[in-house]
Design brief:
By secondary structure, this protein is an alpha+beta fold. The protein folds into three domains: 54 residues, Uridine Diphospho-n-acetylenolpyruvylglucosamine Reductase, domain 2, CATH 3.30.43.10; 157 residues, 2-Layer Sandwich (Uridine Diphospho-n-acetylenolpyruvylglucosamine Reductase, domain 3), CATH 3.30.465; 91 residues, CO dehydrogenase flavoprotein, C-terminal domain (Enolase-like, domain 1, 2-Layer Sandwich), CATH 3.30.390.50. Helix content is 29%, strand content 22%. It contains eleven helices and twelve strands. Helix 5 packs antiparallel against helix 9 and helix 10 runs antiparallel to helix 11.
Length: 310
């Protein structure tokens, strides 16, 4: 049983002050749909929970001259029905509605989904299951069980909203102890399954900035056995601008998003082959590695057809 301290913050500054005070032993808590499950399984043992869910400034959605700005603490449910999303980026609503179940989406936040812990069938289990099987590299073991004894963790990246947002060239606004910065969303993901998010301790995602590109078309697809509850086995988003710039983004097939950029004049089969080759899948999912790998090609070919490319 954890000896827990729960503190509710009312501002970003207060939350980060508390984080500095409890450095090394805290966890931010917003919707809690990922954090609390990991704690129940014994995969998260931080002794201090800093609740940031009551910070109003992190729930705003507004439009500037060049961007749609979405507060990181807006719930997925509220985001999916927001008029600014349906007017400008309906694909994001589709991605949001593919996450978990309606009940979970009422609590889960956009920022929380972007920071969702990488998953693996050898890691996301109860404490007694992991002890009986043998601890994996992500759970204080010595090797990756899914990778056949590898010293590299292959836990897969599962944020569905991140895949769609990266296809839209979204940036993330971060606040840490040194100030506020805005950087491409994909840059915060490390590719390290053990520590998949590379933001500084105490950092908080304040907002997501999406460029207001009117002439952009996107196709989004997701593979999972059940439409609710199951995390992704493969997520794809393919976008194309009026100028012909193509971006392929994959989730669920690597420890970070897989991104392939190209142009309408490029060979599409070569782009698909590159996306497949950049994926680093092992058998750590309910679907086999081979099936998921084959489905990359299927999803991308269908997406290109829907976008009338090639």
């Amino acid at each position: 049983m954890l000896n827990e301290t729960y503190i509710k913050a009312s501002t970003v500054e207060q939350a980060q002050s508390l984080a500095r005070e409890h450095k090394g032993c805290f966890r931010y808590l917003a919707g809690g749909t990922d954090v609390m499950v990991n704690r129940f399984q014994g995969n998260d043992t931080a002794g201090v929970l800093i609740d940031i869910s009551g910070i109003p400034a992190l729930k705003d959605v507004f439009i500037t001259d060049q961007h749609l700005v979405i507060g990181a603490l807006i719930s997925l449910q509220d985001l999916s029905v927001h008029s600014a999303i349906s007017d400008h980026f309906p694909v994001l609503a589709k991605a949001v509605n593919s996450v978990a179940s309606p009940t979970i989406r009422k609590t889960a936040t956009l920022g929380g989904n972007l920071l969702c812990e990488n998953r693996c069938i050898f890691y996301n289990q109860s404490e007694w299951w992991r002890e009986a099987t043998g601890y994996c590299l992500k759970s204080n073991g010595s090797v990756c069980l899914a990778g056949g004894g590898s010293k590299h963790c292959f836990a897969k990246f599962v944020s569905d909203t991140a895949v769609s947002l990266i296809s839209l060239n979204a940036c993330v606004e971060l606040s840490d102890f040194s100030g506020t910065s805005i950087k491409p969303l994909e840059s915060i993901y490390t590719g390290n399954g053990i520590n998949p998010v590379g933001i500084s301790p105490g950092a908080i995602i304040k907002a997501i900035h999406i460029p207001l590109i009117k002439a952009i078309r996107i196709v989004y697809k997701k593979l999972r056995k059940r439409e609710t509850l199951d995390f992704t086995s493969l997520t794809t988003a393919v976008s194309v601008t009026r100028e012909g710039d193509i971006r392929i983004v994959l989730g669920g097939v690597h420890a970070k998003p897989v991104i392939v950029d190209g142009h309408a004049g490029d060979d599409l089969h070569t782009m698909i082959a590159e996306a497949v080759s950049r994926s680093r899948m092992v058998d750590n999912d309910t679907y086999s590695r081979k099936y998921r790998k084959d489905m990359i090609t299927v999803f991308l070919e269908r997406s290109f057809n829907e976008l009338q490319l090639g």
